[in-house]
Specification:
The complex is a heterodimer of chains A (about 110) and B (about 110). Chain A has no helices and eleven strands. Chain A has about 110 residues and is mostly beta strands. In chain A, strand 7 and strand 8 (about 75-80) form a beta hairpin. Chain B is about 0% helix and about 45% strand. Classes of the chains: A mainly beta (about 110), B mainly beta (about 110). Chains A and B meet through strand 5, strand 9 and strand 10 of A and strand 3, strand 4 and strand 8 of B.
């Protein structure tokens, strides 16, 4: 069973479109995240969501909006896509406890044309 | 900026030990050292973590210096499948990862 799953794995779309990436975790974790990994391979956190508290990285444009229908799901919606949004987006989850390993999904590669 | 610094790349012969260093000279007393790796195109994967004692699991060993300002991840018998980018990060135990910054990591190439 996949611990953190995200769909779609690949997404190709035109500039200006709106798209969503879905994420689900079956680990019972209390915190979920979205990360962006661009062409330079830097892994940057975009959002974290814990018990209905959303923490936003201030550098993320407001075209990006996370939506969490419940503790096991954190979806990413992107409005008015731009060329610079092309990247691999990773969903992750963790427990707040001492161990607190971060579990990542396999990534969603977004290409904006 | 990330609180850790690592060499950008390293090579290791297959079957030999891979020793990956990490500097975290500003680490706080309540911060743990974690190691993750990212095999090409996959999501990063947890390897090991520690506070001040050396740690070992089925994947690797973690050696933390007594002053905790640096650490070394050891893969005892590197295989080709260990070729990946290795990230060293620090994190306060019991908190979320929203303040954790991943640096560029070390790209390890295991050579046949």
């Amino acid at each position: 069973d996949t611990a953190v799953s995200q769909t779609p794995k690949y997404l190709v779309t035109q500039m200006g479109n709106d798209k969503s990436i879905k994420c689900e975790q079956n680990l019972g974790h209390d915190t979920m995240y979205w990360y962006k990994q661009d062409s330079k391979k830097f892994l940057k956190i975009m959002f974290s969501y814990n018990n209905k508290e959303l923490i936003i990285n201030e550098t993320v444009p407001n075209r990006f909006s996370p939506k969490s229908p419940d503790k096991a799901h954190l979806n990413l919606h992107i409005n008015s896509l731009e060329l610079g949004d092309s990247a691999v987006y990773f969903c992750a989850s963790s427990l707040q406890g001492l161990a607190g390993e971060l579990f990542f999904g396999e990534g969603s590669r977004l290409t904006v044309l | 900026d990330a609180k850790t610094t690592q060499p950008p790349s390293m090579d290791c012969a297959e079957g030999r030990a891979a020793n990956l260093p990490c500097n975290h000279s500003t680490i706080s007393g309540n911060e743990y050292v974690y190691w993750y790796r990212q095999i090409h195109s996959q999501g990063p994967q947890y390897i090991i973590h520690g506070l001040k004692n050396n740690e070992t699991n089925e994947m690797a060993s973690l050696i933390i210096t007594e002053d905790r300002k640096s650490s070394t991840l050891i893969l005892p018998h590197a295989t080709l499948r260990d070729t990946a980018v290795y990230y060293c990060i620090v994190r306060v135990a019991g908190t979320s990862y929203d303040k954790v910054i991943f640096g560029p990591g070390t790209s390890l190439s295991v050579i046949p």
